[in-house]
């Protein structure tokens, strides 16, 4: 099978160098075969320090170290590739950028978060369906080796509840849990799937907690820490016991596991995550953000 030519939109996150190294360097211990990054549009958001301060360095690294062609527009990148990684760190620009590239009909991975509100998320999913573009968006934590192994180890025994946690710094331009909070939320949905009815959240300077009720009675929680534990993990509750998952214990990088699934989608055209589940994750975070401000239960 010919090597897939991959383009990147947005060079303002460390994910772009991680993905490019995994794809373009065959000597990398976790090399993901089948594709090569060939072109990229730098992008960058002028009012977001964690975007504009990094775009120059990552652009130079991709150009000078990996020989990636730097383009002037998202459209120019889309023209030169077979598939697209939309990596812009600022979720506010994803819909605008996706509108520019979706007419090219290339499969697209959009790095987390898909959007910063459920309306933009729905618009992107509808555009993808209209143009018959395979679209995938998720956190790499969904495919962390320790989590996928723990879920497989359970066999047919159902998980009736889960508690997921991780560091949760806040970023003013990415409201509430849309910044780091999406990681444990993604883990929770990887465990419990779609179908959350409502959420209740509390927040203070050091911690976040959100409790979700699923339509079949399962309960899942997300804890965010701004002090103390800085790792990711989960508890899986089954009938015969509770299983602890230390997400940081896996030897394989999260990005390698995620990229393997992305490459599968680029080849097959079939997203591994149900689009409706992807939308529900964004709506869940949106509802958590509302509840943490009001203190009230919010329906999804």
Task: Report the order of strands and helices.
Answer: EHEHHEHEHEHEHEHEEEEEHHE
- Total count of strands: 13
Low-pLDDT runs of 5+ residues are none
Distance, first to last CA: 43 Å
Alpha plus pi helix count: 10
Defining key terms:
seven-stranded mixed beta sheet; single chain; globular; alpha/beta; six-stranded parallel beta sheet; 36% helix; 13 strands; 300 residues
Characterise the protein shown here.
This protein is an alpha/beta fold and 300 residues long. It contains ten helices and 13 strands. The strands form two sheets. Strands 12-11-7-10-9-8-13 form a seven-stranded mixed β-sheet, covered by helices on one side. A six-stranded parallel β-sheet has the order 3-2-1-4-5-6, sandwiched between helices. A hairpin with a 4-residue loop joins strand 9 (207-214) and strand 10. Helix 1 (14-24) runs parallel beside helix 3 (55-66), helix 6 (118-130) packs antiparallel against helix 10 (275-294) and helix 8 (182-192) crosses helix 10.
């Amino acid at each position: 099978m010919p090597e897939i030519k991959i383009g990147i939109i947005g060079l303002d996150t460390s994910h772009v160098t991680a993905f490019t190294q995994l794809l373009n360097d065959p000597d990398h211990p976790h090399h993901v075969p089948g594709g090569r990054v060939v072109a990229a549009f730098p992008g960058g958001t002028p009012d977001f320090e964690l975007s504009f301060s990094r775009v120059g360095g990552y652009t130079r690294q991709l150009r000078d170290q990996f020989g990636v062609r730097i383009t002037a527009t998202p459209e120019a990148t889309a023209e030169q590739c077979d598939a697209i990684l939309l990596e812009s760190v600022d979720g506010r620009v994803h819909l605008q950028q996706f509108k520019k590239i979706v007419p090219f009909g290339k499969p697209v991975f959009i790095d987390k978060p898909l959007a910063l509100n459920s309306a933009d998320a729905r618009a992107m999913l509808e555009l993808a369906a209209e143009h018959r573009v395979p679209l995938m968006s998720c956190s790499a934590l969904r495919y962390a080796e320790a989590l996928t192994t723990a879920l497989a180890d359970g066999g047919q025994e159902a998980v009736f509840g889960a508690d997921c946690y991780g560091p949760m710094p806040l970023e003013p331009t990415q409201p509430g849990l849309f910044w780091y909070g999406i990681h444990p939320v993604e883990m929770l949905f990887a465990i419990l799937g779609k179908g959350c009815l409502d959420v209740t959240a509390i927040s203070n300077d050091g911690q976040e907690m959100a409790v979700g009720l699923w339509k079949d009675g399962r309960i899942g929680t997300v804890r965010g820490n701004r002090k103390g534990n800085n790792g990711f993990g989960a508890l899986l509750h089954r009938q015969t016991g509770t299983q602890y998952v230390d997400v940081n214990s896996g030897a394989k990088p999260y990005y390698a596991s995620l990229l393997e699934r992305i490459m599968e989608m680029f080849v097959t055209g079939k997203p591994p995550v149900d689009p409706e589940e992807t939308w529900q994750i964004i709506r869940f975070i949106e509802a958590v953000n509302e509840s943490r401000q009001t203190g009230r239960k919010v329906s999804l």
